[in-house]
C-alpha cells in the first residue's frame, strides 16, 4: 500500500517544461549609458531586424571564423603582420556588413508590404468581423517577412492576449517606427471604438505618401550619398592596395615620427568622418 501511494505521489509530481524554451539571448540591456552597452544593444537589434534567424553569439562566431580565414590568407600571401591585421579586420567586418545589408533590404520590403496589408485589413473590417478576426485573417494572407511578424502577434491573439499587448513589440522587432502608428491605432480602436475602416484607409494613404516622399528624397540625394560613401570607402581601399602591393610600405612609413603621427591622425579622422556620414545617411533614410 505504501509503495502504491509512493508511486502515485511520484506520478502526480508536476513536470517543469521551462527547459525547452529558447533563451532570449542578448548582449546589451539597452538601459545603460556606457558605450559598450550601446554597442551591444545595437548589435542585438541588428541581428533581430536582419531576420537571418541566427543568434548574436552565432554571428560573432561566424565573424571570428571569417577573420581567421582572411587573416590567415593575408599572412600566407604577404607574410606581414600589418597585412595580417588588416585582413583579419576586413574578415571580421564582412559578416556584419552582410547583416546590415540584409536589414536594409528586409525593412524596405516591410515598408512596401504595409500599404497593401492595411488595405486588406480595411476590407476585412468592412465585412463586420472583429478586429482580432481581421488581424488573424490578414496575417495568414500576408507574405513574408511582414506576414511572419503579423502571425506571431496573431498567435498571441488566439491565446486571448489583447491587441495592444500582442503587437506591442512589433516596431522593435522590425526596426520600423512607422508601425507604431498601426499599433497605436489598433489599441485605441479596441479601447474607445470608432470607424476602424476610415482609420486604416487614412493610415495606408499616409504610409504611401511617406514612401513616395522617401523615394523622392533618395533620388534627390543619390549623388550626395554616393559621394559620401565613396569618401568613406576610398581611403581604406587605397590603404589596402598599397599594403598588398608593397608589404614593406607601412614599415617604411612608420619608421619616421612624421609618418607615424600623420597616419594615426588620418585613421582617427577617417573613423570620425565615417561615423558622422553613416549617422547622417541613417537619419535621412529612417522609416
| Mean pLDDT metric | 80
Terminus-to-terminus distance: 70 Å
The CATH class of the domain at 107-218 turns out to be Mainly Alpha
What's the total helix number?
13
Q: Fraction of residues in helices?
A: over 70%
In terms of per-residue confidence, which ranges show pLDDT below 50 for 5 or more consecutive residues?
1-13
Reported CATH architecture of the domain at 107-218? Up-down Bundle
Q: Biggest β-sheet: count, sense, barrel?
A: none
- Listing every helix as H and every strand as E from the N terminus to the C terminus, the arrangement reads HHHHHHHHHHHHH
What's the CATH topology label of the domain at 107-218? Receptor-associated Protein
Secondary structure: number of strands: 0
Rg computed from alpha carbons, rounded to a whole number of angstroms: 26 Å
| Strand percent estimate | under 5%
Explain how this protein is built:
The structure is a single chain. With 287 residues, the chain is mostly helical. Among the domains are: 107-218, Receptor-associated Protein; 221-287. It is built from 13 helices and no strands. Helix 2 crosses helix 4 and helix 4 (81-126) runs antiparallel to helix 10 (196-220). It starts with a helix and ends with a helix.
How would you sum up this structure in a few lines?
The chain has 287 residues and is mostly helical. The protein is 78% helix and 0% strand. The longest helix is centred in the middle third of the chain and has 46 residues, at 81-126.
Per-chain topology:
Layout: H1 2-11, H2 35-50, H3 56-78, H4 81-126, H5 131-141, H6 146-158, H7 163-166, H8 170-174, H9 179-192, H10 196-220, H11 222-245, H12 249-253, H13 257-284
Helix pairs in contact: 2-4, 3-4, 4-5, 4-10, 5-6, 9-10, 11-13
Amino acid at each position: 500500500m505504501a509503495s502504491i501511494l509512493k508511486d502515485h505521489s511520484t506520478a502526480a509530481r508536476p513536470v517543469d517544461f521551462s527547459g525547452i524554451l529558447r533563451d532570449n539571448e542578448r548582449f546589451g540591456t539597452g538601459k545603460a549609458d556606457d558605450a559598450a552597452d550601446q554597442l551591444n544593444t545595437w548589435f542585438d537589434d541588428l541581428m533581430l531586424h536582419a531576420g537571418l534567424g541566427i543568434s548574436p553569439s552565432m554571428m560573432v562566431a561566424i565573424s571570428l571564423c571569417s577573420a581567421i580565414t582572411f587573416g590567415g590568407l593575408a599572412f600566407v600571401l604577404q607574410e606581414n603582420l600589418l597585412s595580417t591585421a588588416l585582413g583579419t579586420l576586413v574578415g571580421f567586418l564582412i559578416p556584419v556588413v552582410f547583416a546590415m545589408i540584409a536589414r536594409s533590404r528586409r525593412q524596405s520590403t516591410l515598408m512596401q508590404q504595409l500599404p497593401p496589408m492595411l488595405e486588406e485589413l480595411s476590407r476585412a473590417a468592412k465585412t463586420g468581423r472583429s478586429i482580432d478576426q481581421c488581424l488573424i485573417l490578414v496575417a495568414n494572407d500576408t507574405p513574408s517577412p511582414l506576414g511572419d511578424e503579423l502571425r506571431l502577434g496573431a498567435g498571441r491573439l488566439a491565446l486571448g492576449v489583447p491587441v495592444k499587448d500582442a503587437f506591442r513589440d512589433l516596431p522593435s522587432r522590425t526596426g520600423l517606427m512607422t508601425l507604431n502608428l498601426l499599433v497605436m491605432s489598433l489599441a485605441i480602436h479596441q479601447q474607445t471604438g470608432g470607424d476602424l475602416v476610415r482609420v486604416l484607409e487614412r493610415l495606408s494613404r499616409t504610409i504611401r505618401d511617406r514612401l513616395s516622399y522617401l523615394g523622392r528624397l533618395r533620388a534627390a540625394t543619390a549623388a550626395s550619398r554616393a559621394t559620401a560613401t565613396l569618401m568613406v570607402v576610398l581611403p581604406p581601399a587605397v590603404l589596402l592596395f598599397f599594403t598588398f602591393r608593397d608589404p614593406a610600405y607601412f614599415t617604411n612609413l612608420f619608421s619616421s615620427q612624421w609618418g607615424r603621427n600623420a597616419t594615426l591622425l588620418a585613421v582617427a579622422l577617417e573613423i570620425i568622418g565615417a561615423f558622422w556620414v553613416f549617422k547622417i545617411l541613417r537619419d535621412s533614410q529612417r522609416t
